[in-house]
């Protein structure tokens, strides 16, 4: 690649809108690339990770910030080099042909080690207006991939065994650390303390995939815009005459509702390619360029439904004067009688001996696949998680796919053997992937169900699950026949909104946060300057589990272990995207696994949890443990006879290394 092409790519990745990078900024970026032998894409991944760690805007690329970034990479390189040399000295491990596992050797490892500012600070107990987040045991950001070659020359190879993993059981982050950690019960509860109620219509997820019609897809996209026109009209108390087509020339200020899009099929969204796509009813389906010069700040992504106040005086572009706020779904609420019933269930039912005492809090563990490293099919992280769930007698274990990952190198090649203890009962010639699931995954879940008979286990598929014949998203549940699952396990769709007692839980296994972060356009002083909170707010504001359209180019997604490393991507079935909408109310808890650093945050009264992946490609990952305390009904304010759940105030969430 020539120098001119490299500079052009740097401007595309690091530039803000259509403004090119300054010469000294380009020189500093080229210096970092040469020093650490990085491609532009790898450099951008590390820059984004550094910005997330330091809680700064990745679009604001200054020479001072880049120098701090360069020093951080250098410090991490030295720190990792010293730590791995120490491993060799203490354990006497000699070099082997196997490639060393280095935290940060790829995009996944890189993101695993990030933290936010204020790491390790203890927060004072007491009443808080907003939930407190504590980062525990902060670690440095990742080092360049070329560090592996350096470690090879030293002969220092970190332990490859899962049992020798570092920092096992360490807590990475705590939300609401003023709430005490729950004490595990002495014995499992005599009956299930969870009542499940589905809000999503799972039968509709059983549609026929790979049968998309352009006309139906177009109508779905149009209807979404028209639905938001009605919402904006009611929320802002506007007359229908206030709305118009952004594509029509006029000197009068109007409100235009449409979908953010790019007029270029390649490259990242920028101010030069930014257009508003109208519906056929409101604007004849036309696209019009947007002028953002009069805005103090903005945050856009492809597929975002927006309401813009402005004028198209020349007939060529729509100048935005104001971005109108979109109405949010109402908060989840229940009647006092319903909440009392759930509290009684936590005590053990109406016949509980100590019916007046405070019940033990509800404990739920969230984890996401993959569940085994790239070099084996031992599923050791899943077994360790099930052992932990059995030891503390959790009420529910929520697992999102992929369970058997089609991108796993061994699964993709078909070159693997079942454990010897199962060969006597399995004919290798007739074995299927259901057989693999039955003998490699189900035993851990069955042992958990035996240790805690009244546990609730939820399994949510992924578009990367080799078991699921429903290959598109929204996605139907895979059949449980021949999987050998315990009765406590339930397989639900992707996405799914359901109630766990009073808790409205929304789950999707799609990595929408990474794609939103990669595709968004941010300028000036955005409404939400923090990166992770902004991505979460998009979901709540757009009322959808995957509001991005079109999805990101799958070549830009984190690499997988199979072949060229390009995964399947989002695999959207546009004709059924309405099934990906949130149902009736904002979820109390929104679980969205992502390759971004794991976190638990509160956004617009929604507790958003990214548990991370339970297994990285070459090492152990993280999971989330949520402890929800029962509501104090005496202190709750009623609204129309209903009590808001306010789970974000009474839930303690711990992000933990497996």
From TrEMBL:
GO CC field: alpha DNA polymerase:primase complex
Classification via InterPro entries: DNA_pol_a/d/e_bsu (IPR007185), DNA_pol_alpha_bsu (IPR016722), OB_DPOA2 (IPR054300)
Keywords of this entry: DNA replication, Nucleus
Record has Repeat as a keyword: no
GO term, biological process aspect, one: DNA replication initiation
Record localization: Nucleus
Domain spans labelled DNA polymerase alpha/delta/epsilon subunit B: 364-601
Residues annotated as domain DNA polymerase alpha subunit B OB: 218-326
Pfam family for this entry, one: DNA_pol_E_B
GO molecular function: DNA binding
Coiled-coil segments on the chain, per record: none
Function: Accessory subunit of the DNA polymerase alpha complex (also known as the alpha DNA polymerase-primase complex) which plays an essential role in the initiation of DNA synthesis.
UniProt family annotation: Belongs to the DNA polymerase alpha subunit B family.
PANTHER family: DNA POLYMERASE 2 ALPHA 70 KDA SUBUNIT, DNA POLYMERASE ALPHA SUBUNIT B
Protein known as: DNA polymerase alpha subunit B
Source species of the chain: Apiosordaria backusii
